[in-house]
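Comment thread on ticket #2218

A.B. wrote:
> Attaching the input chain for the structure job we discussed in standup.
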Amino acid sequence: MKGGWVYIVTNQAFGSLYVGVTSNLRRRIAEHRERTGVGHTAKYGLTRLVYAERHDEILAAIAREKAIKHWGRDWKIDLIMADNPNWDDLFDGYS
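C.D. wrote:
> Ran it. Output below, let me know if you need it in another format.
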């Protein structure tokens, strides 16, 4: 089975957060940037990739996404801060 990614996008440091899962991180973040949807990410301009986590199996990525979505906001912020304390946009680092 194909691998997957769990990711978090935001509009600014400590701003609104969205946790997602995808099999193609670069394509999915490009879609967020183009605001192709009409959902939460487009409404709040969530285009900055601040966290990404690779999984060998898409089912593992889906399970992790569901777990993170149930976490409180502070836990999500701690997750981001551990790997990306400056809340840099990580998009260009993924091909």
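A.B. wrote:
> Thanks. Noting for the ticket: Residues 21 and 73 are 18 Å apart (CA to CA).
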